[in-house]
Amino acid sequence: MALGALNLSRRAAAARQKSGEQPGLAFRTAWGNLRRVEGGDIIKRLKPWGGAVLAGLVWTLAFPHAALALAGWLAPALLVALCHGPRLRRVFALGYVAGLAQGLSSLYWVLLIPYPPGAVAGWLALSAYCALYPAVWVWFCWWRFPARDVSGLAEVWLRLRHLPWRDRILWPLQCALGWVALEQLRGWLLTGFPWNYLAHSQLDLMPLALVASLTGVLGVSLLVAWGSMSFLVATTGSVHLRGRERWRRMGLDAGPVLGFMVVLLGLAWWQVEAWEKQLKPRGTVRIAMVQPSIPQQVIWESYGSRERMIERWELLRELTIEAARMEPDVIIWPEASAPLSATRDANGGVELYPIDELARTLGVPMIVGADEAVLDRQGNRRMARNSCFHLDANGTLQASYSKQHLVMFGEYVPFGELLPFLKKLAPVGTFTAGEGPVLFDLGGVKVAPVICFEDVLPSLVRRAAVEEADFILNLTNDGWFGESNQQWQHARAAAFRAIETGRPLVRCTNNGLTCWVDWRGRIHRLEKGSIYEKGVRIMELPVMDAAGAGATFHQRTGDWLGWACVLASGAFAAARWRPKKDSAGEADMA
């Protein structure tokens, strides 16, 4: 096209030269024609990719700091509308670009890990991996579109006008089921990354968030994705109508999802209200949580520097003494905060000096996060675990818990022995997973501890929050990621565990959101200034007789919805599959 324009301009310039026009003017005219044609062609080619990037960035706005719930409702519809092409390969590529834009912008905090080579590699790799899921989703949506012999987006909207009502209802539902199926798989494959689910953007919409007490967090994602796609069909399929007829058409298309949503929200609200009426207050527990806000780089340096180690200990000691003056029932330290590793000998005895002496001196029970070295009979380290320890007011160890779900490249390097270069990207030790949930007993108050990212894993927390548990305790260190959106994204994801289990969630962090979450998912912040400021957070946690009230529906039935959506999406795909030779239209969309 550009060469043709150039030749045309050259001929025009030659004609002008014969007629006596200036050569410079002819050249400028030719160059202007070329720029207009090339510029228009470039813009036309880049426009779909720019739309895909826009869809990904709007999706990012659904999560902190922006945390715009409306962006969560817009994201699925925008992804489908802006990631369309005449062939499914093009659809997949556009969806991947949208997912990459969302991943790179919402997971930027990975770059703040204080090890630049691994941080950059991790940011790019994690974003590239997560981008596969929206790419597969938009591919699935357009593959499932009822009319296959369409090429342009305008033709798609034209077809929507004439689709049978059944297809206008089923297509958005199938798309929503596919969305939830992919969130389920992302939270399970490769040890799982259940981060920034669509539901997490709706935490502040309390009636909607409470649906998680029935279905788990993925039920909220299902409603949002279904509502978004139904809105897309209802608006685009009725754009040619006017007045009452248009509203009638939109009501027919969006009515089923709105009706289902009203019923489910009503059931969730009724369940929570009925459950709360059966709760019997048993008093309160006064909790002092130490937030040292120690940068991860300083933590690493302290392992090789006695001076740094002493600085860490003195800071924790001073904050713990300050906490003891507030007369708490228990003092809590965050994940891996103890400067020295706890050691467990071959007989099971644990050495926690000088922390046990500090608890004994202050006369206050403590729960402390610390790395644990497990020794063999010769005194050599056999394994390392990420653990927490419960000490009574005499400094005697009462119980311990070791993290069950380890993070790749954070606590172990997969295939590190076979591929040693991977350890250079992530210079971490090799930890061993714990064996199961444990309950700590604080004078009759039962605590279910989880560590680090375990509080974003619905199935793990559900197993930990047994009927006897009064609250869930999460010890975490988000200092790896500086002062960023990560702390907020983590807290909002974790808040759904309180809704799902009907148990309050208490979070003690190195830096970030040290807070507690009630069983309605409301985050109660404890700091007076910056969430990243070091200090002591004190709280009075109401203790209820939750055992008498029973468990939420989700706590009783488990994470069934995600796998049901995986099976349903697989069934839809199998029913739709046809050899290419069966349909000329399918060849156009292959």
Describe the secondary-structure layout.
Elements: H1 2-18, H2 23-60, H3 69-82, H4 88-106, H5 116-130, H6 132-143, H7 153-162, H8 165-186, H9 206-209, H10 212-215, H11 217-236, H12 243-278, E1 281-291, H13 296-302, H14 306-324, E2 330-332, E3 342-344, E4 350-351, H15 355-362, E5 366-375, E6 381-391, E7 397-402, H16 421-425, E8 440-442, E9 445-451, H17 458-464, E10 471-476, H18 486-501, E11 505-509, E12 515-517, E13 523-525, E14 535-544, H19 546-549, H20 553-557, H21 560-576, H22 584-588
Parallel strand pairs: 1-2, 2-5, 3-5, 9-10, 10-11
Antiparallel strand pairs: 1-14, 3-4, 5-6, 6-7, 8-9, 11-12, 12-13
Helix pairs in contact: 1-2, 2-3, 2-4, 3-11, 4-5, 4-6, 6-8, 8-11, 8-12, 8-21, 11-12, 13-14
Which regions are unreliable across 5 or more consecutive residues at pLDDT < 50?
Answer: 1-19, 580-590
Terminal Cα separation, in Å?
27 Å
What is the SS-derived class? alpha/beta
Return Rg in Å. 29 Å
User: CATH superfamily of the largest domain, please?
Assistant: Carbon-nitrogen hydrolase
The total beta strand count reads 14
Q: Figure out the total of helices.
A: 22
| Secondary structure: helix percent | 40-55%
CATH architecture of the largest domain: 4-Layer Sandwich
CATH fold type of the largest domain: Nitrilase/N-carbamoyl-D-aminoacid amidohydrolase
Backbone shape: globular
Biggest sheet features:
8 strands, mixed
Strand content: 5-15%
